[in-house]
Amino acid sequence: MSGPPVCGDWLSVARLRFPELLHLHNPDNAQHLVRFYEDDVFVIDNVAYLASEALAAGVSVVILATDSHQRQIHQQLLRFRPDLDCLESLPSSDHYITTDAAEALSQLMIDGSPDEAAFDRTIGKIICEAAAHSTNGFVFVFGEMVALLCAAGNPAAALRLEQHWNHLAQRQRFSLYCVYPLSSFEIQQNLDILTRICAEHTFTVPAESSLYGTAPRND
Predict the structure, then answer these.
(1) In a 3-state reduction of DSSP, which class is residue 48?
(2) Is the full-model pTM beyond 0.70?
(3) Closest CA to 214 of 41, 38, 8
(4) What CATH number has the domain bearing residue 160?
(5) What is the pLDDT of residues 160-169, one digit of tens each?
(6) Domain residues for 47?
């Protein structure tokens, strides 16, 4: 059974089917997108490409991800844009900020739900600092804190966090790309909350088997 396309082929298909993904670094196209996935290879390649495009345009990037995903995204960035001088200083650059998603969540949660005031103090501050080092004050953000909440069996908290992001977007200029592994959901049991999560986004990208007619990889 075939696996996912190689990076270049993936980007070609993504460009054809979902051009919204390719303009997330554009301040005139600020969006809050969500992708559901079965294989995180797709997520890593996609985020690395989008981050590389943002950095090439002088837009700051914020990565709120697990430590493993941070490392993989950085490795792919080097593949996509070896010509960018700023990559030599990553991941500690002023306009490329990485934060551990679990650690960030620990600063937000009160009684099992993300507190909006705490969110503004921590995440809002990170976005503000990134914007200050962006050539146009705009920021591309990748976040998987919501995925961790769902994986912990707390999708209601993920929904609340998505709402906090939307409130922040009314005050700050950024595009946000969220991801959820399908394994985090009992689809039938969580259908209502899943629908409400999708409604908090401007665009939803389905899982890769829906796009390519392939099953998730097991290797």
Answers:
(1) helix
(2) yes
(3) 38
(4) 3.40.50.300
(5) 999 999 999 9
(6) 31-180+195-211
